[in-house]
Write a structure and sequence with these properties.
By secondary structure, this protein is mostly helical. 71% of the residues lie in helices and 4% in strands. It contains 8 helices and 2 strands. A hairpin with a 2-residue loop joins β1 and β2. α1 crosses α5 and α2 runs antiparallel to α3. The longest helix is centred in the C-terminal third of the chain and has 33 residues. The radius of gyration is 18 Å and the shape is globular.
Length: 226
């Protein structure tokens, strides 16, 4: 979202929410950034940065793009994912003018907080309902990714209804944003599912969401050849 879409009080409020979310993420990420997660976080941030540079015009000067929240959360954990996406958004705003500086708090709230936490919550619920197998992680992540995108768009529409700078009907903004982002969510689901499936297939130990399934596997002791 560029500058000028929301009034100053709303932008300040979302900035405060973003700051509080980042503070919580900094504390939570300490439990997630172990040996394999730390280098994965850098790779995830790089991939999300490249994916988010693909923008789709939605209208009125704003755009839609892939979020990467569910993908990042599944790979490196939700709190680390919040930090990764926030760093991406800050770099895009300050160095590439992709997203307004005064809208940075709003973009972090929508993408880093709502996108990650909704995608992770849906994925966790599905994984709790499904058998503890690494093969179910990719489809669960894909569904979480799909639902996270229109949810973030719906939250934007609600924020615009509270503090939008143009007199647009809430229903029109909600329909346009959610409608476009349902389509974008399908692409997000496909990319998330393919990436997670490819990593789980070769190195499930690198996937944060795979840890419970790996821990549930029976211990197999290798026997020396006779």
């Amino acid at each position: 979202m560029p500058d000028g879409f929301l009034n100053a009080p709303t932008s300040l409020a979302t900035g405060a929410v973003a700051a509080a979310g980042l503070a919580l993420a900094l504390r939570g990420a300490r439990r997630e950034l172990d040996g394999p997660t730390a280098p994965m976080a850098g790779l995830v941030a790089t991939f999300v940065f490249a994916a988010q540079m693909l923008n789709f015009p939605v209208g009125a000067g704003t755009s839609g793009h892939l979020l990467g929240g569910a993908l990042a959360a599944v790979l490196v954990g939700p709190w680390t994912a919040v930090l990764c996406l926030s760093v991406v958004l800050i770099v895009q705003s300050l160095l590439f003018a992709d997203g307004g500086i005064t809208a940075l708090g709003t973009n972090i709230t929508l993408i880093s907080l709502v996108g990650v936490l909704v995608g992770w919550a849906v994925t966790r619920v599905l994984l709790a309902m499904l058998p503890k197998r690494v093969g179910v992680i990719a489809p669960a992540a894909a569904i979480g990714a799909f639902l996270s995108v229109p949810t973030a768009a719906g939250v934007f529409a609600a924020l615009y209804a509270l503090g939008g700078t143009a007199p647009l009907p809430f229903g029109s903004v909600l329909t346009a944003m959610v409608g476009w982002h349902v389509v974008i969510g399908l692409g997000e689901a496909a990319i998330t599912g393919l990436v997670v499936a490819s990593i789980v297939g070769v190195r499930p130990d690198l996937v944060y969401a795979a840890r419970p399934a790996l821990a549930a596997r029976p211990l197999q002791l290798a026997t020396a050849p006779r």
